[in-house]
Amino acid sequence: MQIDESRRLLFSDTLVPDIFITEYLPSLDGLAVKFYLYALFAARSRRTFTEAEIARRLGAETDAVRAATAQLASVGLVLMKERGFEIVDVKAAEVDKIYRPRTSASPAPVAADGSDGPATPVDPRRAAREKLLGDIAKTFFQGLMSPSWYYEIETWFERYHFEPEVIYALFQYCAGKGKLDGKGYIAKVAEGWASRGILTFQDLSVHFAQREKVTGISRRIGKKLHKGMTEYDEEKVVQWVEGLGFDFDVIELALRRTVKLQNPNLDYVDKILKEWFANGLKTPEDIEGYETERARRLSAERQAARGGVGPGSAPFGSGAPNRPRNAGNFDQREYSDEFLVSLYDEVPAVDPQELAAARAPEGPASAASTEGDAPQELPHEPKEHHRTAEPPSDVLQGQLDLFQLEREAP
Description:
The longest helix is centred in the middle third of the chain and has 25 residues, at about 200-225. The chain has helices at about 1-10, 20-25, 30-45, 50-60, 60-75, 90-100, 125-140, 145-160, 165-175, 185-195, 200-225, 230-245, 250-255, 265-280, 285-305, 335-340, 350-360, 365, 395-410, and strands at about 80, 85. Residues about 1-5, about 100-110, about 310-320, about 365-375 and about 380-390 have low confidence and may be disordered. Among the domains are: about 10-95, Orthogonal Bundle (Arc Repressor Mutant, subunit A); about 125-200; about 205-300, no CATH class. By secondary structure, the chain is an all-alpha fold. It contains 19 helices and 2 strands. The protein has a two-stranded antiparallel sheet.
């Protein structure tokens, strides 16, 4: 019995659909691919396996096998049931997606003379599409393009009304970015092109020229700001160039206003450019005039707010005191010179000699001094407390004279 099983295993084969290789294999994890191949092999024997047995045969953990099963179910390769799963016939599923069932038969083509044969010439548009499909399959899929791609391309023709050249350029663009492993990215790009009105080859040429311009401006902006431009930054540049219609000379004027910022950012530049666009400014000359007038107006407002020349101030050269404008809007008091002088008391004149004599030290030491006798020091006072009377210095005398002259002045 064991020998018969070995012989059957030796000469048996497990068939793998080509549609699995072209359509599902690139997006699956390695364990999911191993599990799917082992499931195809085990389904022929109709044996029952537990998750632990499958995990042991595949050399993986049980949780990893469960995750692989969930991935196969998410892409439609297996159908989960109450006890186990069922392998889906991917070829039949792909046919159902591509071909629609017909409810009535199409009439057979009849020639003009009534005999069987081609009734009408081949549609040039259909012929161009067929050639496009062949070129895409050979160029980007080595002649092994999945049937689902044919269905996807036909959908783009019907939904967006692209020309064949636009579809081919679409594959070129995504292949250059390495994004042909799935349909999500290229479908998003196709939707974006259609929303921008890129339907013909002429529209595509204008778009690529504009894109090249945006790329150059984005590179120059990054060089000016010494930063690497991200995809979000490039989206802002696209809006400035395509949406607002600004060239780099206008954008550079906005960049110059970020010099005083510690961390220059494109949000600040975006705010400036949108303000200019809202005011209808398109050229550098218009912007320079607008900014000059704006700076003059703001300077006048700041000067008026600080109490500069304005309503209520005396004109320059009139001789009247130029008082600041009353920001508090209340009446101020007026003070005359006589009132200010009256605040000071009269100081009587002082004779310099009398002032010097008044400053001379008086005490028992000076009174007790006689001719030929030295002055005696008091025993109860420290020596350093006794000072000898000195005549006023020249500086003090000058100050006294100046004080007297000021008092005698009218």
